[in-house]
Amino acid sequence: MITPELQNRIAQWRAKQVAGTLTLEDQKEAIIVLREWRKTAATAATESKARSKKAPSKSVDDLFDELGTV
Fold first, then answer.
1. How far is CA 7 from CA 17, 37, 38, 70, in A?
2. Model-level pTM greater than 0.70?
3. Residue 56: per-residue pLDDT
């Protein structure tokens, strides 16, 4: 479950994106926070066998490298 604090941060990031003021630091923060939330949510849920067969997700460093090339 997404906390009210996380919902608020997501709303702030979206508003900044629409306004064109979302910084690289904001993007990095969003990646870190959302990936941490997803890890927590994934451990709380039972994973199916089909899900375990998916390709591994990218590391945070790989995502940051992609952001630098945008």
1. 15, 12, 14, 26
2. no
3. 67
